[in-house]
Amino acid sequence: MKTKTKTVTRIDPLPKNLSPDALLHSLGITVPRDIDIEAIAYYVGLRVRRRCLRCCEAMITGLGNKGIISVNPGGMPQRERFSIAHELGHWAHHRGETVACRATDIGKFSKTNEVERAADQYAADLLMPWPMFKAECRQHRRLDLKALKAVAGVFNTSQTATLIRMIDSSVYPTAIMISHGTGGRKWHKSAAGIPGYWFPKADLDAETFALELLHNPASRDEGFPRKIGADAWFENWAAEKYEITEQSFRIPGEGVITILNLDPNMLG
Ligand SMILES: [Zn+2]
Q1: 228, 204 in Cβ contact below 8 A?
Q2: Distance 186 CA to ligand 1 centre (A)
Q3: pLDDT, tens digit, for every residue of 199-215?
C-alpha cells in the first residue's frame, strides 16, 4: 500500500495557555497515573535534566519559548516530581526567564515570597487536580495517616504536599496539620471553617505523642489516631470541654507532623 508523506510546518506548536487545568485538558489526562510531569514539561517546550546544582535544589533556564529544568539527582521521586512541577509553575508565570530555587523555596507554600508560593500552588494544582483529588479523598471517611498514605500513593506525591492538599480540600472540615521540629512548632494549617481561636500551642504538651516522637528516636509512628483532651493542644479556655484525636508521624528530614481531628462542636 502506498502512503503519502505529508510535510508539516510547525509554526508555533507550544500551547499558549499553561494553566494546570488547560494543560491536563489538552493532553486528555483524566486519571492520576497519567500525570507524567516530564511529558507535560516537554509539551510546553521544556526538557528535564538531572545534574548536581551547587546552590539550589532545582532551576529553570529559559531562552525564548524553550527551556531546561534542572533538578538535583538522588532525591525522593515524589519530591523530584514536585520540584519539576514547581519550576513549570515559574515557567507558566514568567516564560523565558531563569529562576533558581533552594530546597527551602519548594513545597513550603511561603507566606512571604509570593513568587515561590505561586509556583508551589501551580505544582499542587498540576499534580493533584481538584476533581481527581477530591474524588480520591472521598474514598476515606477520616483524615488519618492511612488515608494520607493511600492518597499520596495514588498521586505519587510526598506526604507533606499531599496532606496540605487534603487539608485544603474541604473534604475534612475538622482537620488541622501541625509541623514540629526540635525547636518547637514550625507551622500549622487548618481546614477553612475552623475558627482562628483554635490556634495550636507553641510548645508540645507532655501528654502528646508528638513530643515522644520528637525526642525518642526509638519510638515509632502512631498506627492509628488516639483520643486526647483538646487542652493538650490548645490554650483556649473552652478546650478542656472537648476531646479530639491526634496522630503523629515522622517525615524524614522535616520533623514530626501531627494530624488533629477536632470535635465537630468546636466549629461553633
Ligand atoms: Zn521556585
Answers
A1: no
A2: 20
A3: 999 888 998 999 989 88
